[in-house]
Amino acid sequence: MNTKEIVRFLKFTFISASAGLIEIVTFTALNESTSLRYWPCYLTALVLSVLWNYTINRKYTFHSNSNVPLGILLVAIYYLIFTPTTTWLGDWLAETVGVNEYIVTAAMMILNLTTEFPYQRFVIYRNTVDNRVKDNNETEEI
Known about the structure:
0% strand, elongated
C-alpha cells in the first residue's frame, strides 16, 4: 500500500468513526427509550450511518465524481449481504446468547469498517478515485 492509499484509508477511518458515532447515538437512543428488540434499533442506526458514510467519503476520501445512482446501487448490493447477516447475527448474539448489545454493536461496526473500505475502494470507486473537480467556492478539503 502506498502513502496515498494509507492516507485514503485513514480519512476513510475517521469519516467512518463519525458515521459510527451517528450509529451508536441512534442505537442508544432507540435501545434505551423504546422496548424494541435489538434488530430494529441496529437496522435504523445502520441505515443512517451508511447514508452519511457514503456521502462524505465520496467527496473527501475518494474525490470521485462517479455516477451517484450507480454508487448507491453498489452500496445497496454490499448492504444486501452485510445487513441481513449482521442483523441476524447481532440479534442472535444479543437476544439468544445474551451478549451485551453494545458489545455486539461495536463488533458489527468493526466488521463493517474492515469490509467496507476495500469494497468501496476497489468496487465502487475502482476507476473514479481522484477524478472530482473542485467547485469554485471550495477551498479546503479534510
